[in-house]
Amino acid sequence: MMGKSHFIISTGITLSVMNLLGYEITIPAVAVAAVSSLLPDIDEPNSLLVRSAVPESALRLLQVALIGAAIYLYFAGIAEPPWHIVLALLVGSVSFLPGRRLRQLVMLLIALALFAFADDYDPWNYIAACILVVASVVPHRGITHTLYAVAGWGALLYFVSLGMNDGGSLWIAGGLSYALHLLADSLTQRGITPLPPLPFKLRLKLMSTGTKKGSGVEKVCIVLTLLLVVYVFVITPS
């Protein structure tokens, strides 16, 4: 399922269910629900979440920086000939990696920066850094598309929110939105493997992402989500 569909469906249903259950809809809860609706796809460098966080302009800047670093290493005399040429070629060649590999490299660099320089945002900096490191090395629809990830993300939000004045519903918003993403992916031909190493796959085979039928199924799900949101927040507001 496309990223924009995940965003609308998971966020809309999550906030609607929370409102129906009597939970306060706070700005942090909305933000966590929105991020969690896309978070499982952080293991895909070309996903909506990663492309938004690491746009093409950032990739171009990284390529220029790598080429500049290669030129510097060649002329700076840091290594003895011919190793200065080898070192320069190694660094410069990284700039020619495919876009998805460059995004993974950027994710790792951001993670290192969060570990090193973002102490003021503890513990969110370490949480984000660990997620980026894991997401840059695992395959798509791997560990991030399991019930273990749902439980881990919900538990993480629960313990982090204990010291927050308005954080009581964060773990519900995050856990539910994350789980709805996985449920939506289970509609596809590929499905998900919710409890590895058990080989059981959850897949209803109703659609394939990017196809005409898949687009139709996504539109139906979006319309139903918007109808639920209108009913909960407009027709019968609490």
UniProtKB/TrEMBL annotation:
Keywords assigned: Membrane, Transmembrane, Transmembrane helix
Membrane-spanning segments: 20-39, 81-97, 102-118, 147-164, 216-235
Domain of life: Bacteria
Protein name: Inner membrane protein
Organism field: Paenibacillus typhae
